[in-house]
Amino acid sequence: MDLENIVMQIIINSGEARSHCLNAIREARQKNYSKAEELLQTAKEALSRAHQIQTEMIQEEIRGNGQPVSMIMVHAQDHLMNALTVRDLATEMIEIVKNQDIKE
Question: Tell me, which GO biological process terms does this entry list (predicted)?
């Protein structure tokens, strides 16, 4: 697979994960906690795929087979970091919503 397709896989998987996290928050707001957890798990799997691709690229660079940094690669890294942040925030927000529901 060429570099552009590899980088696009990071973007696609990161975007999928971000969307699942936001949908998980929406489900939690509707008190659909099992669906929220299911969506977080799906997001985790997409993030794992993106991270695996990133790790393989890093390992190739360590072996001396690195690729030049391009704007699309920077864009992919932005997507991945954003998705990781959204996942962390979604996890915390869902716990807050659950705890408020328990107290009511």
Answer: phosphoenolpyruvate-dependent sugar phosphotransferase system
